[in-house]
Amino acid sequence: MIDTQCLAAILPGARWFGHKGRVVESVSVWDHSIIEDGPPALVLALVETSFSDGSSSLYQMPVLVEVDGALRDALEEPDRLAVFGDLMAYGHTLKGDEGSFEFGGAGLDPSTPPGHESIRVMTAEQSNSSLVFDDKTILKLFRRLDIGPNPDLELNQVLTSEGFDHVPPQVGDISYRREVEGEDVVVHLGLAQRFIPDAADGWDHVLAHLRALYDQIDPADAREDISSLIKERSEEILRQIAELGEATAALHVVLAREGFVPDIAPEPITPEDLERWATECEASCDVLTKADVEVDAATVKMLIGQLRDVPAAGMKIRIHGDFHLGQVMWTPRGWMITDFEGEPARPMEKRRAKHSALKDVAGMLRSFSYAASAALFERADPGSEGWSQLEPWAIAWEDLARSAFVDAYLSKSHEGTFLPADRDDIAVMGSVFELDKALYELGYEMGNRPDWARIPARGIQRALAREQA
After folding, report:
1. What are the beta bridge partners of residue 36?
2. DSSP 8-class letter at 148
3. CA separation for the pair 334, 240 (Å, rounded)
4. What are the tens digits of pLDDT across the range 276-329?
5. Which helix (DSSP H) or strand (DSSP E) does residue 462 occupy?
6. Do residues 305 and 296 lie in contact, with contact meaning Cβ atoms separated by under 8 Å?
7. Beta-strand (E) ranges in 74-232?
8. How far apart are CA 7 and CA 27, in angstroms?
9. Is the dihedral of CA 380, 384, 387, 389 positive or negative?
10. What is the per-residue pLDDT across 208-225, written as a single tens digit (0 to 9) for each?
């Protein structure tokens, strides 16, 4: 029924295809189910892609299939996908050739299933596809799949059941089950949540403030008054950033509770964990030999090495794993946290691994640095007179944002027992995780945006300066 040659032709060009640049050797249908007969038929297909290096990957493709086998992505006609709302609301299961496609809708009303008034495709996403039903429900379809739980669905289930206020409640899900090599396995295909119509992307929200702040700067402003002027002009956003710190800590407090299943339950951080994290971070220092930055690699490694000596590092818990301003939304009711999939390039076992909560904190602190600099790049070229005038303001704003976030986070985090008891140990661990993130960023920027390499380079320099202060 499905023309695999057609699949092989369209798959590499899809924006959510995660293996661009690699040679696709073959494409096969792992399993499929006909959702509606059509014509064209609406088919939910799981597609296995094999590459020339011998590896393979699994993708989800809702497709519209003509009688002759020609097909196209079903999201080109989103109205056809309203049936997904019915399937979830009624809790239907559809049979495939090898397994079953299971639709759940614990938070949906079967008498008014979503999708009968309107349905539209969100355009911002890259690695997944999202549909908004009736401006009330959003369904995220995971495109690149792994056997086993997807952390986005897994953690949203936990947080919704725990009544956590800072995630849009989960209302439905789509999963696939089959037997693989004698073992029953699950593949998570989709997550439905309440849609927040009046939410602003956190990155855009903070960047809009920074643009306005930089526009207010007068060359006559005394440099010694920069911090006090920023406090005055950024009072509202700094208050919101403090609220984000509280929301982040509240997330970690929930995920650190006892009584969860083993995959979620907190565990003590062991010396072996610290050794592994330090070794991984040290390996990232290789980028410093290629970068034109005034950073001594030996000093960086010395700071990283202190992680091994933290005597009581607290608990390792499930964390967000890819935490930055683009993963939070500002709403009139406060912050909402989204996208718990972790870093898309990492294998699933890494994305589901427990870690120190301070890794999430480090990710958000690095995001403040990027926001302050991104607004600066819009206004001036590095090294120019305009850059020299604005850079002290960017640095001062970042410092104030960091303090607002960290102070609020540490105050709220005392409701749990997942952090080290000693503030000095917290500082060491936080610095190492920030360095790890900045080293990754440095390598990325050198290969993609060389002018931006100064942002993570400055982050590394300032981390060392804080340690030496």
Report:
1. 42
2. B
3. 8
4. 999 999 999 888 888 777 788 889 999 999 999 999 999 999 999 999 999 999
5. helix 454-468
6. no
7. 93-95, 99-104, 119-121, 128-133, 137-142, 144-145, 170-180, 183-194, 200-201
8. 7
9. negative
10. 999 999 999 887 776 778
